Amino acid sequence: MIRFALQGILGRKLRTALTAIGVVLGVALVSGTYVLTDSISSAFDSIFTENYKNTDAAITGKSAIDLSQDEAAGGVAPPFDQSLLAKVQALPEAGVAEGGVFGEAQLIGKDGKTIVFGGAPNLAFSVTPDRPEFNTLALVSGAWPAPGEVVIDTQTAEKKGFQAGETIGVQARGPIQRMRISGLVEFGQVSSIGGATLAGFDLPTAQRLMDKEGKLDQILVAKKDGVSEQQLIDAIQKVLPEGTQVRTAEDQATADAEGTSGFLDFFRTFLLVFAGIALFVGSFVIANSLSITIAQRTREFATLRTLGASRRQVLSSVVLEALVTGLLASVVGLFLGLGIATGLFRVFDAAGLTLPNNGLVFSTRTVIVALIVGVLVTLLASLRPAWRATRVPPIAAVREGATLAPTRFHRFRPVGAALLAIAGVALVVVGLFVDGLSTTTVLSSLGVGVLLIFIGIALFSSRLVRPLAAFSNPVARWSVLILTVLAWPFFSLPYWLLRRGVWGPGSSGRRTAGFVLGAVLNPVLLLIVLIMAVRRRAGSWQPEWPADFPGVLPDRPATEIGGQNSKRDPHRTASTAAALMIGLALVTLVATLGAGIIKPFEDAVDRIFSGDYAITAQNNFSPLPPAVAQAAAAAPGVTSVSSVRGGQAQAFGETIFITAVDSQAAGVLSFDWQAGSQDVLGQLRADGAVVDETYAKDHNLQLGSSLPLQTAGGKTLPLKVAGIFKPPAGGSPFGNVTISTTSFDATNPQPLNVYSFASMQGGVTAANTAALEQALATFPNAKAQTREQFKDAQSDGIRGLLNVLYVLLALSVVVSLFGIVNTLVLTVFERTRELGMLRAIGLTRRQVKRMIRHESVITALIGAVIGILLGLGLALLLAARLDEVSFAVPTGQLIIFAAVSVVVGIFAAIWPARRASRLNPLEALQYE
Question: What pTM, to 2 d.p., does this model score?
């Protein structure tokens, strides 16, 4: 039976390849995910290792509380006094010690704009030429910076046209400064650090730019010969002041990488979810393809049973075919993952998420996981078709058109499917609405619930095929016509002209004119038509007139037959449509949630932001130094400027995000007060605090309640609740606790503004905008935006993320497209004699193509209708649970999704329809 199974695969290469497509693409995304994240992790490891080369101990600032790595949230340890460096250098165990500072500094291009590549950071360092062993930057050309000079990275210099000796603008915590570029550098041995820009200064210059005079962020120490690392660490511990810590170089690199490791773990899980979706969709394609193939091989299996094969041997034969198919598909997908990883780097780069890269990493773990996942998915998908194959009775070998009788449990299928879907909905409801569950339990409940919903709906949808097919039949007919008419100037007209020019009738002058005009209208089609002409001349192919030349009404007999074909086997149609249903359900869910997030956010801005202008960084999300708001306040016509600082602190044993506002806040910000009034903002004292409603409820806080807040510097602020507000559904820029700017700055030596808002006499006018822009001219990284511009800019980040999700979900739609192709191809095999009969009684090749295409479009529309409705249902459940999300139907996008499903159906039918139209009627009538 092993030999029989292998021969069966070789005898059906096309069917096997089409069946394996879903596994290939799913495994490719699994492999690509691991290659991508392993490559990023390797690059970050190289970066952190390079930071501490030739270093035995690293001294850094120490926060009194646990901080996240988000600089916008104040997740940076405070600097320490520079006097510590001399004490460390005087230690007998220390060989060499050198201090430095680091932070962010924007480089300004020749056009006066901030140089930013994607969403990558703008890194700044101090460099010490006298201690090259500690330098993370490698000098490529020029010289190390003298006071008032800068070195920049070669990538920035190449892309923006800078050379050593030229002048460049630099903006850190103060206004822009012009500096001479003394040299060009690269970051150690790392081939790419993403889109980050690098700027290096001598220590005094770096301290001045970053407002850290007399301060250091770290001290790197190398031990003397004969001294162990532990001896060095012990010696340094004795001279460390409060607020500092010492680690070995390896431990410090690990600590630096903690934030990155957490991001990569999330990122890997995020991408693997989409790989799982593609494999899940692929499993439907595999199961459907094998079911059709087994139905077509009924007489073959019956003959085997007649010759003595047992049910177990038939089962083993089908399972072995699936095993070999899964293994081959997994191997192809494994190596295709390398291309997927490269493509994902480019996708995230285009979305503004430029990632570091030090070469693709193809680990053994990737190979093992990808192969196991691909083979298991294929085997699991093959179990039901394989079990059906064992039920073929020997007598079927002598029957014409023998089919398998339904099992005794077949009548319970609709009830079982409905129960599965109901169980899935119940699990989703539990995950969303039951309080007190762990994160793992919630995610597991949601994941399993959605999975059961998809399976249940897919099984039950066979009952919906006939009514949906009746609805989709006229929709498919006219949608194809509309798309054909729309394609007239882009495809059909140039195609017609090119064909006339190559082999059409008429004079040579008309033919030449048609050829030239067709080539101008669509150069891509020119190559296609020329290839067709060469093949025709070689006698290998006879061209036909385009099947859907615009202006021709739908061929009703052909489309009616196609509509009937889609209803002939509801289970097969439903199973084929299920793959597209899953993809479109998820795409609809994402689109609906996106619309539900953006609208509440815009409403929240309108409710909170009562000023005229918002001042943000050029990339819309980076924090800005207070000097920017001070410059804006000096603009003519400004009546008030208020900024929202951001940081972290600890209260009630947990680290929270806190914000701070100044006395001008009441003029540009509005709160929905549950306790207190708007006057609180303008009169917030050093011991006053405003908390949000949820935080107050969780900790039983009321007006006058004590709220001890421990800051990153170790100081505890004895605060009292002066107001409680309710954040709008779309969120707010304020943390759980908001204090006065005076209190915040007293405990945070490097404060940053998350947002700044301004009000001006006369409101938004061209003159006011120009005045504000002029005031911000010395800060190129800052920009002034009106309320509408601010909402659009902030929403762009959400839309960018949605576009990434669409790209990842598109893979499942591609898998479903191949599923439709596979089903149609197998259907053509199955209906060979029927097609021959139709051709014999007068059905033309064009009508055969239309019949197959119409069936494909109806199948796609059934999947689209069910998928869109299911996606809206899931979005409604999420919107009911999440306060930040409202239920908003993206009507325009849903229309686009429906149109895309029609296009998917048309493309899926191209090859099967062509194959069906080329059948020889006489040979088809004799087909067994």
Answer: 0.73
